[in-house]
Structure formats: structure tokens, C-alpha cells
Design goal:
It is globular, with a radius of gyration of 21 Å. It has four helices and 20 strands. The chain is about 15% helix and about 50% strand. With about 325 residues, the protein is of the alpha+beta class. The strands form three sheets. The chain has a twelve-stranded mixed sheet. It has a six-stranded antiparallel sheet with strand order 14-15-16-19-18-17. Strands 13-20 form a two-stranded antiparallel sheet. The relative contact order is 0.13. It has two domains: about 200 residues, Clam (outer membrane lipoprotein receptor (LolB), chain A), CATH 2.50.20.10; about 90 residues, MucB/RseB, C-terminal domain (Phosphorylase Kinase, domain 1, 2-Layer Sandwich).
Length: about 325
């Protein structure tokens, strides 16, 4: 009884502290989105494209499990166990299975520390709103520069789970938004749901990239990238002959992610040069020393352009 009393007291004190400190509220949102069991329907909007999906998430033992089922368009499912993600995509004849790196998918989109965010964002409480028939506290991350967007989160007052996220640019235009339309907390759960909805009438095709060590000597340097961004992953894949390798690095400030590609052009291939916008994604490309350099991300054009120009060959 004493243990239960002190645990309850600790949680009450923690919640009270979060009401005064928005950074603490953000950390509680991280904990809730990873450690609680929940199920719901999400609606994701990227410009005019709107998709609905069902998500089930559970903490089982020391591992987290997530299953996302797309409800619009071609059937597709994403199953994530810890840092391992498998995508099941359905075509007319086949089901294509692909292994992916673990993505930061809403609502588990926040980093496990606020220190990196504090370098480049300010955080403030907004009003109390209502999302998916639940009371939610709004918190707003405002960038200190024009290399990143604004992030607005609606945090469930009862559990701290992020119920809604809006990303907006410096002109207050919505870039993307994701929101629960309904959600419920699961008290107990097993893993019977953690499996794809298999169509036995279709052929299953496994798409796997050849694994190449990513610690190969680099023949370039990355200089003068925007403050707050750090390299969080790197991989190498074969795109042609034995010596034609694509180098893919990912940088993040804790919320925004940028992919930087460096690959040689093969004979007859035309280089891409300049900036472009594809939906919510901005791209900056240049060509140097026989290599195509391309930066891609849901960040301002200025940011991807800075990353593509940051590559200096040795």
C-alpha cells in the first residue's frame, strides 16, 4: 500500500510540474507515446492529400510493437518491433515486403531528450482544446531561425499522448497535419494483432537491399550545416556495378529529418541541378566531380539547399 501511495504521489507531482514546464510536458508525451498501450484511427494530411490509418501500439515486456493499417488507396501495412520496420505493400498481383529503418511515426514522433531541441526551438503552452473527444493541452515549438518549421502538438490532458500535430511554415501555412479521430487506451493486450492481413491469393515478393558496411572511408566532408542538426544514421547501397555505391546519410534536429544522398552518375545519366518542391518535400540537387548530390526533407528550401552545398570533396 505504501508503494502504491508513493507511486501515485510521484505521478501527481510529475503532472503538476509538467503543467508549469512545457519541456517536461513534452518528455511526458514521449514516455506516453512509447510506453502506453493504445489503439485508434489517424487522419494524416499532406497539403491536399488526406489519408486515414488505423494504429495499434503496445509495450510488451521490454519491447514496443506497432501496427499501422492504411485505410485508403492500395492496401498497405507497417509493422514495427523496436527499431525494425517491415512494410507490406499490395499491388494488383503481388504483396511487396520491404525492410525499413525504424521511422518516427506519429504519435511516437518526439525525441527521448529535449536538450537538442532547446538549442534551436522555443516552447510555449497554448490553449486547452479538444481532439478526438478528449481534452488536450497545446504546446508550440517555435524555431529560432528559418531553417526549420513550427511544430504544434495537442497533448492529451489525461495520458499526455500526442493527439494531434500541425507543422506550419513561417507564413503560417499548414505544411502537414496528423490527428486522431478516435483513440482508446488499452489496459491489457496480447500480440495476436501483431501480424499482417495476408492475402493468400497473391505472390509475396521480398525486396531487400544488399547490406554494405557503412563505415567505408569517406571521400568528402560535411561543413557548415544549420545549427542543431546532427547525423543520426548512415548507410551504403549498391545501385549498379560493384563499385557504384549510393551513400545515404540522415540528419535531424530531433523533429525535422533530412536525407543527404551522394552517388556517382553512370554513363548517359544526366545530372540534376537546382531546387524543387514535391508535395510537402523540398529537394536541392547539384553535381560535382562526377557525383550527384541531393538533399531531401520536409523542411524549408533554404535548409536542403544548405545541406547540398555543405558537401566538400577531399
Amino acid at each position: 500500500m505504501l508503494r502504491t501511495f508513493f507511486l501515485s504521489l510521484f505521478l501527481l507531482c510529475s503532472l503538476a510540474h509538467a503543467q508549469d514546464d512545457p519541456w517536461q510536458a513534452l518528455m511526458q508525451a514521449y514516455d506516453a507515446s512509447h510506453n502506453l498501450n493504445y489503439q485508434g484511427v489517424l487522419q494524416a494530411q499532406h497539403l491536399k492529400d488526406v489519408k486515414s490509418m488505423e494504429i495499434t501500439h503496445a509495450k510488451y515486456g521490454d519491447e514496443t510493437y506497432t501496427r499501422i493499417n492504411l485505410l485508403d488507396g492500395e492496401p498497405s501495412e507497417i509493422l514495427t518491433k523496436g527499431k525494425s520496420t517491415i512494410v507490406y505493400g499490395s499491388t494488383d498481383d503481388n504483396v511487396v515486403i520491404q525492410k525499413r529503418d525504424a521511422n518516427h511515426l506519429f504519435p511516437a514522433i518526439l525525441p527521448n531528450s529535449t536538450e537538442q531541441l532547446k538549442q534551436v526551438y522555443q516552447l510555449n503552452f497554448g490553449k486547452v482544446d479538444r481532439v478526438a473527444d478528449r481534452k488536450a493541452q497545446i504546446v508550440v515549438l517555435m524555431p529560432n531561425d528559418d531553417y526549420r518549421f513550427f511544430y504544434h502538438f495537442w497533448l492529451d490532458k489525461q495520458t499526455s499522448i500526442p493527439l494531434k500535430m500541425i507543422v506550419s511554415d513561417h507564413n503560417n501555412q499548414v505544411v502537414e497535419q496528423t490527428s486522431f479521430t478516435k483513440v482508446k487506451i488499452l489496459e491489457k493486450t496480447d500480440l495476436a494483432w501483431f501480424k499482417p492481413n495476408i492475402d493468400l491469393s497473391k505472390k509475396y515478393v521480398m525486396k531487400e537491399e544488399e547490406s554494405i558496411p557503412s563505415n567505408l572511408p569517406r571521400f568528402w566532408e560535411i561543413k557548415q550545416i544549420p545549427k542543431g542538426f546532427k547525423e543520426v544514421s548512415s548507410k551504403v547501397s549498391r545501385i549498379g556495378g560493384p563499385n557504384i555505391l549510393n551513400h545515404h546519410m540522415v540528419f535531424s534536429d530531433g523533429l525535422a529529418y533530412i536525407s543527404l544522398f551522394i552517388q556517382p552518375l553512370t554513363k548517359g545519366q544526366k545530372p540534376r541541378v537546382g531546387n524543387a518542391t514535391m508535395g510537402v518535400t523540398n529537394v536541392s540537387a547539384r553535381y560535382e566531380n562526377g557525383y550527384q548530390i541531393m538533399a531531401v526533407g520536409s523542411v524549408p528550401i533554404k535548409t536542403v539547399e544548405t545541406f547540398s552545398n555543405a558537401v566538400n570533396f577531399n
